[in-house]
Amino acid sequence: MDIRQLTYFVAAVEEKTITAAAEKLHMTQPPLTMQLHMLEDELGCKLFRRDGRTLSLTDAGQHFYSRALEIIGMCDSAKSEMNDYRSGNAGELRIGAISSVRGTLFTDWIKDYHDKYPYVKISVHSANTYQLLEQLRNREIDMAVIRTPFPAGDFETEYIRREEMSAIGNGKFFSCPDSDDISLQELSASPLIVYRRWQKIIESVFETSGLVPKICCVNDDAEMTLSLALSGIGVGLLHTSALPGKCDESIRILKLHEKTLSSEIALVCQSKKSLPEPSALFWKLVSENK
Fold first, then answer.
1. 252: Cβ–Cβ under 8 A, 6 or more apart, which residues?
2. Which fold has domain 165-261?
3. pLDDT in tens, 163-194
């Protein structure tokens, strides 16, 4: 028994003759008759009373008709649900995001995605790059938004944009009142707030220029770096997408043009071909608008 036979059976019941049912199904009468006989043989009971060309249901046939309608309805619903998954109208987006993209950039992506696919549940996992790569390996998430440097390994990666590092803090920490840029030399006099992953890289860049950075605070993510910088205890070093859209007039943001401190934001996953549809649609949205 298969769904095709159930469809044939329901058509025969509703059309009341083999001829009319065959026409409705766009098939000839002999194969339809054969399929109905096979169905009765498999079930071990007669489903139809035959009065000339007219068909009517036996008691068993009436009961089976109800069941057939339920099964066909369930199959139709399943197909519709799968179409919803395929079109992004259902399912779950399981995505990881580092703190340094959860400012306006990641928020804008999520908003655009939600506007386009409002019925997809969004599950965001917040962690650093290496923790998110581990979550990908363990299949706790399907994809992640991280930034370089990181070991790409066997992950599938698409680089989205390169960002420079900027210095953000109260204007009192900067000696260049009219400039939008700052040099390492000028920055070396300020108390710096950095997140731990970038500490050694920042120290190395300063040392290469014969300078020693005055790091007053080390923490574990960009959001904490930003919060502490805005509190006035020092100058935070952050990449563009971690910076606030608006801030107090006393706060200044100066670009630090050091290539070795720039970083690329990337989408990563185990395999794009194996991504669940909600994640594949998010990947496509970001890729097309990078």
1. 168, 169, 170, 171, 174
2. D-Maltodextrin-Binding Protein; domain 2 (3.40.190)
3. 999 999 999 998 877 788 999 999 999 999 99
